Every structure is written in structure tokens, then in C-alpha cells.
Prior knowledge:
The complex is a heterodimer.
Chain A: E1 3-6, E2 11-14, E3 19-21, E4 23-26, E5 33-38, E6 44-50, E7 56-59, E8 62-65, E9 75-77, E10 86-95, E11 98-101, E12 105-110
Parallel strand pairs in A: 2-12
Antiparallel strand pairs in A: 1-4, 3-9, 5-6, 5-10, 7-8, 8-9, 10-11, 10-12
Chain B: E1 5-7, E2 10-13, E3 19-24, E4 31-37, E5 44-50, E6 53-56, E7 65-68, E8 75-79, E9 88-95, E10 104-105, E11 109-113
Parallel strand pairs in B: 2-11
Antiparallel strand pairs in B: 1-3, 3-8, 4-5, 4-9, 5-6, 7-8, 9-10, 9-11
Amino acid sequence: xxxxxxxxxxxxxxxxxxxxxxxxxxxxxxxxxxxxxxxxxxxxxxxxxxxxxxxxxxxxxxxxxxxxxxxxxxxxxxxxxxxxxxxxxxxxxxxxxxxxxxxxxxxxxxx
Amino acid sequence: xxxxxxxxxxxxxxxxxxxxxxxxxxxxxxxxxxxxxxxxxxxxxxxxxxxxxxxxxxxxxxxxxxxxxxxxxxxxxxxxxxxxxxxxxxxxxxxxxxxxxxxxxxxxxxxxxx
Lengths: 111, 114
């Protein structure tokens, strides 16, 4: 069935390292794709989104490109900061009324 | 726009008690969603309203769970006869019918059942 699968964590990086968090989806049709971020003790915040194939979402130095051919929406950042430490969730828009989130990837950035 | 708000932020209850959580969505949003999130997991969809109509409730975890949105504005989620397994974060989100179904989340209500 339709779902979202993302890279398991936790991920630990040094400051200024390159980040990739993988996300793939299965879907009937062409969903919109999202990355949400959850900082410690806070709710989920929308980080970026893409609504159609080849779209690139970007925000706060993070980017993700909607790849229909590989059904992927990998999150990348060229140089992470300590303040990027959080849990990142990949998500897709609904089929019918069913909404899908990945299990989350915890990122810790050390100085 | 003050965002999605949820009350209470924390609830501690004894097993067997009933609890009710409230969600106030962004004012112009007509869609409202409830999710449950357990430690180390992503949000698990529970139910969904468009205005006052509950369009999906088959994912509610059991008949002890119910949700209402009587006037199409705020919503309540009730859990009757709570069990220790109900301990989790309960998240509310809202969205506009137009656009890409981008959901905006509240801070959540953390439930602890003793």
C-alpha cells in the first residue's frame, strides 16, 4: 500500500558536515511531499515541501528534490549547525483521507 | 494568526479514567486532524474533519477513542477508560482545503496513564 520510508537514525555529525537523510515513497498517483522538523520539546514544523515531479523545496539551507523516477525525496544540507539538531520526518499528502509520515530520523550535530 | 493550539499540554491520569483534549486550529483552516505519536515513531493518523464533518474515523485506535468538532472550529479528542498503552503525545494539525494539504501542527498534549 501507500507509505513513506525514511532512513533510520540516529545520525550524528560534526558541525559543517554534509547531511543527507533518505526518504522514499510509494503511491498511486502524484502526492505532494514534505519534510517536517521537530525540535526538542516542540511540535512538528513544516521545513519544506514539493508538489510535483522535479520540484525542489528549500528552506534554512535544507533542500529536497521530488524525484518521480526513483520515488524519492531525500533531504540535504551542505553544512549543518548545532541548531539543526532535531528529529526530521518525511511525509506525503493523502490518498483519500489517509496521511503518511515516516518514522523520523534523529540528527545530533556536535560542535 | 496564532497557530494551532492544544490544551492541556500535559495530562497525567490514572488507568480507567476518561480524558479529553482540546485543539484550536488556525482560524481560516477548515480541515483538522488528530494524530498519536509514541516515542521514536512518526505521527500515526487517527481521524480527520472537514468543517464539522468527520470524514475518516476508521483509524481511531478503539471504540474508547472519539472525536468531535461540533461547530467546525475547535475539536476535542476523548479517551474513555484509559489504559497505560494510551500514554503518548497526541497531536492536532490543521490545513486549508485549497493548496497542497500542508498541515500545521500544534505543540501536542502529552498523556501519561499511571
